[in-house]
Amino acid sequence: MRGSPLLRTLIVLAALLVTGLALGRLTAPRPHQTTPEQVGATPETPAAVKQATYELILSGTAKEVSLGGGGVPATVANSAGPLAGSLEISGELPVITLSVKWAEQAPGHRFAKLRLEIPGKPTLEHVFDAAGDIDDIWEP
User: Alpha-carbon distance 11 to 83, whole Å?
Assistant: First the structure.
């Protein structure tokens, strides 16, 4: 072998150091530069809460039903027929939560069909199903 092992080691270490410094500069966060348009801009307001109407059809008698859309949840006790009302939906991409506790504890498959009408959007439908109580979310 030619050359000094100590010199080769120092050259490899120098190359690793230069590479590390270059990668550090590439991955470092850049300082935020404001433009004149950004100086006068107002911060974004949070998404407005919309009132949506819903219809919930259950396959059996429920002991307790809770339906939420990011706002105040709608809770109903002892329901046998279709439920209807209004629901607060918050955000552009809402998350709908449904919790149904059935009055009868007999084994069997049950479902709940939700029809949701958000102003300015087409009618949405979703079927929640489970072998027992339903506790689920839906991201329309």
Answer: 77
